[in-house]
Each structure stands twice: as C-alpha cells, then as structure tokens.
Design brief:
The protein contains twelve helices and eleven strands. By secondary structure, it is of the alpha/beta class. It has two domains: 157 residues, ATPase, nucleotide binding domain (Nucleotidyltransferase, domain 5, 2-Layer Sandwich), CATH 3.30.420.40; 157 residues, ATPase, nucleotide binding domain (Nucleotidyltransferase, domain 5, 2-Layer Sandwich). The strands form two sheets. A six-stranded mixed sheet has the order 3-2-1-4-6-5, with helices on both faces. It has a five-stranded mixed sheet with strand order 9-8-7-10-11, sandwiched between helices. Helix 2 crosses helix 4 and helix 10 packs across helix 11. The mean pLDDT is 95.
C-alpha cells in the first residue's frame, strides 16, 4: 500500500514543507518568513496560527488536499528525554510544548503542533520522528563532575539515526549490529558513540565538545565562571555569544566554511590556524567517543554541511582513520528522515512510540 505524507520542518526564519509518496518527494519547498513578522512573537509557540495559515495557503496553491494524505509528520523539538523512534502526537505532548515543558524555546517545537493542527482537519495521524531530545545514554555518560550539573542528551538525532542506517547498509551490516563514531558537522557540531542501535554518549553542541561555526563548544571552566562575573555580559548576552556567535564567527567574523577555506587558499594564516584548531578538536572528540566504545569501532561517520569540504574531511581522515574506515555522507536530509520514520510505522516495520509512557 502506498502512503502520501505531508512533512513539516519549522526553522528559525523558514518552514520546510514537502509531500512524499512513500520515500520519493513530489516536492520540497522552503517558505521564508519575514523577520519583522517573526519578531512580533515572544515565543516560538506563539507562531502556531501564523505558520499554520501560511502552510495551508501554500498547500492550497499546490493543489494538495489534506484528505488524500496518509499522515502528517513534523520535526520533533526539544521535548523531555525520549527513546529513539516515531511518536504519534498526543494531547500530553501538545500540552508540554504549549506550557513550556521543553529544554529550549526553539522553532522545532512547532513541528508536532503544526502536524497535529493539519492532521486533525483530515482525521489522519500526526507523528514526530527522533526529536533532538532522544536520550540513550549509559549511566556513566550522565555524570559531569558536579552533582548539580548532569550531562544532557541533545543532538542531531533525526539526521544521525538515518545516516547510521545508511552507513550500516553501505557496510553490508544490520543497523543494530555495528558500532560507529558519528560526527554531525554543521553550525553546531555533535560527536556521538553509537553502539548497536543506541547513541550511548553524545557531545552536546551547546555545552561542550569541539567549537563549531557559531558555537563555542567546551570552554575553560574557571575562566568561564570569571567571565560570567566580569560585568562585561548579561546572562542573555553571554549565552548568545556562546551558542550563536562563538566558534569560527567569533574568531574570524564569518561562520561560512567556504569563506574560511578561500581565505586559507589566499594565505590567511589566522584563518588556517582557527580552522585547523576546529578540525583538531573534532578529531579529539572522535577519539574520546572511540574510547567510550572500548575501541570497538566499525566506522567513523561524517555528515552535515561541513562534510562537503574536501579540506576538512581529508584533515580529519589523516587524524582518525587509524580507528576505523571513515565514511562520508555530506549534508543532511531531514525531510527524508521524517518520511522514513513515519513509513516504518505505517508499514509495520516498527511500533509507534507512546509519548505518555516514556
């Protein structure tokens, strides 16, 4: 039986919308939202009606009838810690999002809400797949060094879980048979230890690990405490600098990897130093996750936008290929990952996950 799916992926200034016929996209569109309109909303959830109406108008122009769909699938947000899988959107999930019981106020939290709004009009199920709050940590991975601060699992779960399946297939192995170290190389960088179907440890891009195009990564702890009390920044300003204006952007004034590599080719020694330092930190984190797997690593997997860079990939390969073969899956395809997750449930390959029982 064939399934036609509406996929919704809300971002900071846009909403991606797609129609999939099984795993084949009929179209994928990016609807841009003027920043002056979004600034009028205090929280991401306050944009619900605005984004819903924009999507409905777009679908009407495309001639898409909700009643002819099998399901609506939204990107999962920063919800409570959840097991990996596909979840049907239920009232408790919507209540948690609307009441702010989430890790962060992020546009991705709208994915479940918008999926439910549209699916309910057609009497079809709404799903989310592998939200960023997927948590499969082993107990040791939660310990930070201070009882007041527990390590949290927040990472690019949607893309990484799909890439792990692709990597296993490329090796001729089953998804739940192999061990891998995975690195999602985007504006934030997360490196994870994948052991036979579970991400047992992850470097949280906002709280540690390597610095990235816009994020500071792990910082000297005592120096950070002194900076907090220096009077130079408010709490909001310092959090913004660490998570949105750190990394390459803080050192070089740009977050664009292509721009940094152009500068390197033109002889900019500072650009080379900072870019190589980022690669060095990524490699160190890959080594740390290999240790979490006790050295039993079948592959090192690189994905995300920066994995398009020959310079970066070759530099990482030089440092980490002694661990295992390096497999590269550049870019990300979250829309396809959302479609695949829903299809695994609709076709009976997986059981739908119960949000209320997790």
């Amino acid at each position: 039986m064939s399934h036609r799916l509406l996929i919704i992926n809300p971002g900071g200034t846009s909403t991606k919308v797609a129609i999939f016929q099984d795993e084949s996209p009929e179209f994928v569109e990016v609807i841009r939202h003027p920043e002056n309109q979004l600034r009028s909303f205090q929280r991401a959830i306050d944009q619900e009606a605005f984004r819903r109406d924009v999507i409905l108008n777009f679908l009407e122009k495309k001639g898409v009838e909700l009643g002819r769909l099998s399901a609506v699938v939204g990107r999962g947000g920063a919800l409570k810690p959840l097991k990996s899988g596909t979840y049907q959107v239920v009232p408790q999930m919507l209540d948690d999002i609307r009441q702010g019981y989430v890790f962060a106020d992020h546009p991705s939290n709208l994915g479940a809400v918008l999926a439910h709004d549209l699916a309910s009009q057609a009497g079809i199920p709404a799903y989310i797949v592998d939200p960023v709050s997927v948590d499969e940590f082993i107990p040791e991975a939660r310990i930070s060094g201070l009882p007041e601060l527990e390590r949290e699992s927040l990472f690019h779960a949607l893309n990484l879980k799909m890439i792990c399946r692709q990597a296993a297939a490329s090796l001729g192995r089953e998804y739940q048979e192999i061990n891998m170290v995975t690195a999602h190389l985007g504006s934030g960088i997360t490196v994870s230890a994948y052991r036979r179907g579970r991400m047992i440890d992850v470097s949280h891009a906002n709280n540690g690990g390597p610095f990235a195009p816009t994020r500071a990564g792990g910082l000297p702890a005592t120096g950070l405490v002194k900076l907090c009390y220096s009077g130079k920044f408010t709490e909001a300003e310092l959090l913004d600098r660490m998570t949105k204006r750190g990394g390459l952007l803080a050192y070089l004034g740009t977050e664009n990897g292509d721009e940094v590599e152009r500068r390197i080719q033109e002889g900019d020694q500072l650009a080379k130093l900072i870019y190589d330092a980022m690669i060095y930190q990524i490699a160190k984190e890959i080594g740390a996750m290999a240790a979490a797997l006790k050295g039993d690593v079948d592959a090192v997997v690189l994905t995300g936008g920066l994995a398009h860079s020959t310079y970066l990939v070759n530099s990482l390969r030089e440092r980490v290929s002694f661990l295992a073969p390096v497999l590269v899956f550049p870019g990300e395809d979250e829309m396809k990952a959302l479609a695949q997750g829903a299809l695994r449930v609709l076709t009976g390959q997986e059981q739908v996950m119960d949000y209320e029982k997790v």
